[in-house]
Design a protein that fits this description.
It is a single chain. With about 120 residues, this protein is an alpha+beta fold. Helices cover about 30% and strands about 25% of the residues. The protein has one domain. The chain starts with a strand and ends with a strand.
Length: about 120
């Protein structure tokens, strides 16, 4: 077993209703670096080459879960089915792992974004 950290964009409470206030996702993204990061990373499609991600986007992520698992697929399964509670330590409450979230292999430091299908390695 290995350890992985699941990172998610945490929208500040003051910005959570922004898309409704401005009636536009694009305007919410223009006004909030957190909404912009979330929406940009949710558009990630599977590719074989490492994904280049702007540091400003990465800065919007927070550690949510420490997961003991065998691989990325296992992390995804554990943090969606929630049937192995002893395998998860919560740093800060989040949601089930989904597209746009980042999984860090704690042994290697390699980061992967959850894509529309599978995982894309994030370029160092």
């Amino acid at each position: 077993m290995k350890y992985f950290t699941v990172q998610q964009v945490k929208i500040p409470e003051s910005e959570q209703d922004l898309p409704n206030q401005v009636n536009s996702w694009s305007e919410a993204c223009a006004q909030s670096k957190h909404w912009n990061a979330k929406m940009e990373m949710m558009r990630v499609s599977h590719q074989d080459e490492p994904q280049v991600v702007d540091q400003q986007i990465l800065d919007c992520y927070q550690d949510c879960y420490l997961v003991q698992a065998t691989d990325l697929e296992h992390v995804f399964h554990i943090t969606n089915c929630w049937n192995q509670p002893d395998a998860v330590h919560t740093y800060t409450p989040g949601h089930s792992t989904s597209v746009g979230d980042i999984i860090v292999d704690n042994a290697t430091g390699e980061r992967y974004v959850v894509a529309d299908f599978g995982f894309n390695k994030i370029a160092a």
